[in-house]
């Protein structure tokens, strides 16, 4: 089983923007939230700008891209559907990573990964375009080991494992069975020559056991639970506690 030295924490700021958008006062500030998270030790910032701009807006993405230039050792990850609005951001801003997610335009939240071989041919040219721009490409994927070689053949550098099923199974009799699927999928991705990311409904409760079991997780992208915790603890204390959860997985 292959382990990375330590998993990086990327903070998804969509929910900060969602709260801000309920009024016209500009608070809470997405860039201020990003700054506080980076100062506390987060390795990167993630946003998922949807076409309806219901949370992160285009001007947020541009403001965060400018902010990240002052943090050259941190990463900017932009998520979205490459057949909707994602590629416009990739072409203009060239983030460190683009995470391709098969969302519908009005979808409530991400709830499934790409399907192979069905999606392979239409993804290949967009993956190649992003990589030619110097952008690392991660594909949002369900924990299906046999799909990993096909994702690599399409050109993906990494996969982001969709972890909602793990979060739902946490603390139930299905926990071990579900975790085994993630272990096998991550190992299949590593064997195919890809890096492994993970995200969706990870929390301070379920993060450490996930990272202890699943090999080679380079990055976790966490938004909902982390922002909810920040409402009670503040950004700085919350980031430090998530970093503790990651650190404990390697002790």
Provide key terms for this protein.
alpha/beta, 44% helix, 251 residues, TIM Barrel, 11 helices
What does this structure look like?
The chain has a single domain, classed as TIM Barrel (Alpha-Beta Barrel), CATH 3.20.20. It is globular and about 50 Å long. The protein has helices at residues 14-20, 30-39, 58-68, 86-93, 120-132, 148-153, 164-169, 175-191, 207-213, 224-233, 235-249; strands spanning 8-12, 44-47, 75-80, 97-100, 136-141, 158-162, 195-199, 217-222. β4 (97-100), α5 and β5 form a beta-alpha-beta unit. With 251 residues, it is an alpha/beta fold. The mean pLDDT is 95. α2 (30-39) runs parallel beside α3 (58-68) and α9 packs parallel to α11 (235-249). It is 44% helix and 16% strand. The chain contains eleven helices and eight strands. The two termini are 16 Å apart. An eight-stranded parallel beta barrel has the order 1-2-3-4-5-6-7-8, surrounded by seven helices.
Instruction: Name the CATH homologous superfamily.
Output: Aldolase class I
Let me know the number of strands: 8
Please report the number of helical segments: 11
Binned, the helix content reads 40-55%
Give the overall average pLDDT.
95
């Amino acid at each position: 089983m292959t382990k990375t030295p330590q998993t990086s924490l990327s903070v998804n700021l969509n929910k900060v923007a969602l709260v801000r958008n309920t009024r016209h006062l500009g608070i809470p500030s997405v860039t201020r939230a990003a700054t506080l998270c980076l100062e506390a030790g987060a390795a990167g910032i993630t946003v998922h700008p949807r076409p309806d701009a219901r949370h992160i807006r285009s001007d947020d993405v541009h403001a965060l891209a400018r902010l990240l230039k002052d943090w050259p050792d941190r990463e900017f990850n932009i998520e979205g559907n490459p057949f909707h609005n994602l590629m416009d951001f990739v072409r203009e801003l060239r983030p460190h990573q683009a995470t391709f997610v098969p969302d519908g335009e009005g979808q409530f939240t991400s709830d499934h990964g790409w399907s192979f071989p069905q999606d392979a041919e239409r993804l290949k040219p967009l993956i190649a375009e992003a990589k030619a721009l110097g952008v690392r490409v991660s594909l949002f994927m369900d924990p299906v080991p046999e799909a990993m070689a096909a994702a690599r053949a399409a050109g993906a550098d990494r996969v982001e494992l969709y972890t909602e099923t793990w979060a739902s199974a946490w603390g139930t009799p299905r926990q071990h069975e579900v975790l085994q699927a993630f272990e096998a999928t991550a190992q299949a991705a590593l064997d195919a020559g890809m890096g492994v990311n993970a995200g969706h409904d990870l929390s301070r409760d379920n993060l450490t056991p996930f990272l202890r079991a699943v090999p080679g997780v380079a990055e976790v992208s966490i938004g909902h639970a982390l922002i909810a915790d920040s409402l009670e603890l503040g950004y700085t204390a919350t980031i430090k506690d998530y970093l503790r959860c990651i650190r404990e997985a390697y002790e």
